[in-house]
Specification:
The chain is built from 2 helices and 6 strands. The chain has 130 residues and is of the alpha+beta class.
Length: 130
């Protein structure tokens, strides 16, 4: 199977042994994005709304580097450290995925890297697929 590494300086660099995304089999699979401000080691200031916005901006930048975009996302997984933040995250999420949003799972986790409140990973169709 052919697979291509996707990398961009417009989103935070990987903080471990992984890539920002992999393009394979007509899809783009992103790593989970946390609300790091690109080019820094700083989390976006504010609460879960601001962090969700930064995460989705980071996801969007990775998808753009892969030659696709948020409109082609078919599945997301959202990780929250507190399900009490669900409604606030969901409000921002809906701004990015209007119309026909992708399938989604949302799970509560004990902790996220760098003490982030939210992390999101996506699977998107590559431009040549669908």
């Amino acid at each position: 199977m052919d697979r291509t590494v996707v990398s961009t300086s417009a989103a935070p660099a990987a903080i471990g042994p992984y890539h920002q995304a992999i393009r394979a089999a007509g899809f783009v699979f992103t790593a989970g994005q946390v609300p790091l401000i690109p080019g820094t080691t700083e989390l976006a200031p504010g609460g879960v709304s601001e962090q969700t916005r930064q995460v989705l901006d980071n996801v969007s930048a990775v998808l753009e580097a892969a030659g696709t975009d948020l409109s082609r996302v078919v599945k997301t997984t959202v990780f929250l450290t507190d399900m009490a933040d669900f409604a606030e995250m969901n409000e921002v999420y809906a701004e990015y995925f209007s119309g026909q949003p992708p399938a989604r799972s949302t799970v509560a986790v004990k902790q996220l890297p760098l003490s982030a409140k939210v992390e999101i990973e996506v699977v998107a169709l590559d431009r040549g697929n669908g």
